Amino acid sequence: MQSGEWITINDRYYRLGAVLSSGAGSYGQVWEAADIAGRAVAVKLINAEAMTQTDPALHGHWRAHLEREIAFLKSLNADQSRHVVALLDHGEVDGQPALVLERLQANLGQWLAHLRRESTPPDLAQILGWAEQILDGLDVVHQAGFVYRDLKFSNLLVGDDGARLKLADFGSLKREDGDNTRSFIGTPATMAPEQVLPVRRGAEGCEYAVDYRADYYALGLLLFALLADQPTTAAQRRLGQLLALHGQEGAGRQQGAQQLGGLDDEER
Q: CATH number of the domain at 6-102, please?
């Protein structure tokens, strides 16, 4: 895929623009796009380049993540989509799932950078308003029986000049069924310790006990960054260091790892 290319989804044409997001380990790649009438949309496709670098046995998981995202977004009504990005169309491109989504002005990280350039940082009322909208979006996810698992600034879309927030990117959804998961999914900067530190290790790999509380932990980290004007907490930096030094399976074996989380005296 490349900028300027036309793709067809359900006999409707979309012209691709620039890539909006494409993390190295992301299941999906999001593009700016426009339909034949010129309406701005976002198109999410499988991240084919990243997928080719993984074990072929796992490729079915990549498709399953996007199919789960489609099913979740399809199930929402207009009221439930107030703070969750709306699905406008879906189908397949090159035999893989494709989503057409509403496109907003920016993600929250980009919007905050814009506010800093304008020397107009968000005030407390705006931050609390954003928190309320994020909670509303998370409630939709949780009521549908899922854990979001990847709440971060780049997954929050901004509309109406900062007055409206919507959750986006649901490729990390996990069914909230009480079972542990073997999926190590999330962004280390905003992952709860239980997303990183396994509860057990076995022949088939590590197991993680993750439920909806991980989403509220991530929200707490975002609010800390907004209110304290610091990128993250000391505990979260330590968690990232453990991952960098010892890897996914080794991090939990390090002394003090199980006490990670919370704020230190200075942060309080």
A: 3.30.200.20
Domain map of the chain by residue range? 6-102, 106-259
> What span, in angstroms and rounded, lies between the C-alpha atoms of 55 and 65?
16
Average pLDDT, the chain: 86
One-letter amino acid at 248 equals Q
| Non-local CB neighbours of 257 within 8 Å, separated by 6+ positions | 193, 197, 242, 251
Maximum Cα interatomic distance, the chain, rounded to a whole number of Å: 59
Tens of pLDDT, residue by residue over 97-141, are 999 999 999 999 999 999 999 999 999 999 999 999 999 999 999
Return the CATH fold of 106-259.
Transferase(Phosphotransferase); domain 1 (1.10.510)
pTM: 0.87
How many angstroms separate the CA atoms of 217 and 237, rounded?
Answer: 15
Cα separation of 181 and 53, whole Å? 23
Question: What's residue 40's pLDDT?
Answer: 97
Dist. CA 149–CA 183, nearest whole Å:
11
For tokens 């990183």, name the residue: 196
Tokens describing residue 8: 């067809």
- Cβ contact 251:242 at 8 Å: yes
pLDDT over 80 (residue 224) = yes
Angle at 266 between CA 118 and CA 151, to 5 degrees: 55
Which token pair is 167?
Answer: 């959750």
- Which of the four pLDDT bands, split at 50, 70 and 90, describes residue 70? very high
Could you tell me how many residues make up the chain?
A: 268
